[in-house]
Recover the amino acids of this structure.
């Protein structure tokens, strides 16, 4: 046989072998598992997740006010994009109340997903279903459970919002203690997380929080007649996304927002899927949406800091115009550990009422 003839035989054999095997794209996909721990394990593709979630038709959320970090627009966008009805339970519920409500409600009435402070998320991890979203690698390790039971979607830095017509820009939290100022927390620090964090931000020195130092500042403000309520205050300690929203809503541009240098207290809200979610595929699609570039940029539009912000910036997926509107911050952010939070809360419980009232 000639060399050319051999080549033809080999070529024909190769064609025959290729024709005998089904194309890889025609390989049947595994059955859908709506309670799987990842997109690839449960659905293989995003299209199959969307299809399964659409069949469920409903997503039940809890503790999400429409005015909070853009959640109104986020819920509407999710519903319009996927044709899934969003049922919102107890929008004003705090993190612990979300868990209490889930414990009372069973079956189809239970919430599918939670939005929680880290302390509540870690304490209730066993009631959450593991699920690693597609953008998992971009979420910083301190902001996620390695088993995928909870993970941050957004957060912020404690800031000072102030009326620039009445007080100069404060360079530190301690600088608020000046005659004539009216300083406020957004609520009772023994009951409200943001108010507690305001005290703790004021307690930071050299990167280290000290609850006693924070309580002492507010005791001095109280003694000097400088501690007031948010509606009458010239300065309000609150998360930067709340103070930035106040600044955007007020006419005249007199409300400014600053984050004191080297006293940057950060806090993030954790997402979690109910292990007994009545709509497990819709719950997983919701988390994929929140942690997608689209969802993260909707948080950013509402002045919250996306958990995937650094990764999005590196890949060009971040809304730079929205990011430019965030209050600038310098210095390494401090995130209180659970033991630090517990110790600080115990200190405030023992000393706040008698020193500040």
């Amino acid at each position: 046989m000639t060399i050319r003839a051999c080549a033809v035989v080999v070529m024909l054999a190769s064609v025959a072998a290729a024709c005998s095997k089904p194309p890889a794209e025609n390989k049947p996909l595994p059955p859908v598992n709506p309670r799987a721990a990842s997109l690839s394990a449960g659905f293989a593709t995003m299209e199959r997740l969307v299809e399964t979630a659409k069949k469920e038709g409903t997503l039940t959320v809890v503790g999400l006010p429409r005015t909070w970090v853009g959640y109104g627009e986020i819920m509407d966008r999710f519903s319009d994009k996927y044709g899934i009805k969003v049922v919102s339970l107890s929008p004003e519920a705090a993190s612990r109340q979300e868990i209490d409500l889930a414990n009372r409600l069973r079956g189809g009435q239970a919430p599918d997903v939670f939005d929680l402070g880290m302390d509540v998320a870690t304490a209730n991890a066993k009631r959450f279903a593991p699920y690693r979203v597609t953008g998992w690698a971009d979420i910083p390790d301190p902001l996620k459970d390695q088993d995928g039971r909870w993970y941050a979607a957004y957060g912020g830095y404690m800031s000072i919002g102030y009326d620039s017509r009445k007080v100069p820009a404060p360079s530190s939290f301690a600088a608020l203690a000046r005659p004539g100022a009216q300083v406020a927390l957004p609520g009772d620090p023994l009951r409200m997380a943001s108010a507690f964090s305001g005290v703790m931000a004021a307690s930071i020195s050299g990167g280290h929080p000290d609850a006693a130092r924070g309580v002492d500042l507010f005791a001095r403000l109280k003694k000097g007649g400088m501690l007031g309520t948010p509606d009458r205050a010239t300065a309000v300690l609150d998360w930067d996304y709340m103070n930035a929203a106040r600044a955007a809503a007020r006419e005249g541009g007199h409300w400014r927002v600053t984050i004191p240098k080297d006293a940057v207290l950060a806090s993030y809200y954790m997402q979690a899927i109910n292990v007994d979610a009545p709509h497990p595929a819709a719950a997983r699609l919701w988390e994929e949406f929140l942690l997608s570039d689209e969802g993260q940029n909707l948080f950013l539009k509402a002045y919250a800091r996306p958990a995937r912000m650094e990764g999005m910036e590196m890949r060009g997926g971040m809304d730079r115009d929205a990011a430019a509107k965030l209050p600038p911050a310098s210095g390494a952010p401090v995130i209180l550990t659970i033991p630090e939070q517990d110790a600080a809360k115990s200190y405030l419980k023992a000393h706040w009422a008698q020193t500040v009232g």
